[in-house]
Amino acid sequence: MHDLPFNFVDYEGIKRLFIYLNKDVQLVTRNTAKADIITRYKKEKEIVKSLLDDALLGEYLLLDLWTSLTTDGYMCLTCHFIDNNWTLQKRVLSYTFMPPPHSGLALSTKIHNLLCEWGLEERVFSITLDNAYTNDLSVDTLRVELNLKDLLVCKGDHFHMRCCAHILNLIVQEGMKGVDPSIVKIRESVKYVKGSQARKQKFLECVSLVSSGNKGLSQDVSTRWNSTYLMLQSAIHHRRAFQHLDLIDSNYKYCPSKVEWEKIEQFCSFLKVFYDSTLMFSGTNYPTANLYFPAVYLCYIELKKQIEGDNEHLKVMASKMWLKFEKYWSEFCATLAIACVLDPRYKMTFINFVYTKIYGECSLEFHRFSTKL
C-alpha cells in the first residue's frame, strides 16, 4: 500500500513502535515478512482465479506498456469480465517488469504465458492495446497460436481491439500539429505565472480583483492533447485576470489579443466533443464498447461541420484530423457497432440511421455490416 521495502520491519523506529504497542511482540525479519506477503498473494490469486472461472462470458483483456524514466519497460495486463451477479469486474492479472527485447514475438510469448498461468487460454474473447506496430505484430502472433487450437470466437476476427481513447488522441494530435500562435501564448502565459512564487501571488491578486474565482492554472504536456484542452479551459476562465496582469506587470509579454482569445474559445468548443468522448471511453466501472459508435458519430458530425464551415483555422485543423479519422472509422466501425446493436437504447435502428447519414440511403456499407452480423 505504501511502497515500503520488505526490510521496513528492520527499521529501528518500526521495532520501537511494535515494542511500545506490545512489549511481548515477536519481531519478524524481512524474509519472514516477504514469505507472509507471498503467501497472501497466492491466496488472493486463487480467489481471483475462482472469480474468473465463474464468469458468465469470456474475458476481455487490456494491455498497457510504458517505459520508466530509467528506460526500463513495464507491462500491465488487466482482465475485464462479468461475474455471476451480472456485475462488471476488473482485476489486474500482472504488473511486471518487461525485459528487452520489446519485440512483437517477445510480447506475444509473455501474454500467452500469462493466459496459461491464469487458465484463460480457452476463455479470452478480445484484447485491447494502444495503436503501435509492435502491438499489432504481437496480437497477430498470439491470434495464430490460439487459432491453431481453435480457441477464439469467429477465428479471432474480433480478437484485436485498439484503444479508442488512444485513437482519439492520435486523431486530435494530428490536427494540433503546427500549434496556433494563440495556444503558444497561453502556454507561455501559464509558464510565466508558475515561474515563481511572486508571480503566482501577483496573479492571485489579479484573480481576486476581477472576481473570476480561482480554479487554478493547468500546464499542458506535449504528448497529451487533452492536457492542452484543460490548459485552454483554465486560461479562458482566468481571461480577465490575464488581461489585468498585462496592465500591471511590464515583464508579462504573452497576453493574447481579443481576436486570439476568441480563437482559443473556438478551439475549446471544437475539441470538447473529443474530450468528452475520451472521458467516456476511459471509464472502468461501466461497459464502454456500446458507447463507441454514438460517441464517434458525434466526432464525425463535428469534423464535417468544421470542414464545411467558414472558420479557416478550424477547417485546416479538422481536415488534418479527418484523414486519420477515416482510416480508423472504416477499420473498426463494424466491429464495435455490434456492441451498439446489443444496447436496447440503440439497436439496428440507430446503426441504420448513422450509416444513412454517412453513406446515404441503402448504402453498401450497411448491407455489409448486416451480413456480417
TrEMBL record:
Residue ranges of domain hAT-like transposase RNase-H fold in the record: 282-361
A GO MF term: DNA binding
Keyword hit for DNA-binding: yes
InterPro entries: hAT-like_transposase_RNase-H (IPR025525), RNaseH-like_sf (IPR012337), ZnF_BED_domain_contain (IPR052035)
Top-rank taxon: Eukaryota
Family annotation (Pfam families): hAT-like_RNase-H
Keyword tags: DNA-binding
UniProt KW DNA-binding keyword: yes
Protein name: hAT-like transposase RNase-H fold domain-containing protein
Provenance organism: Stephania yunnanensis
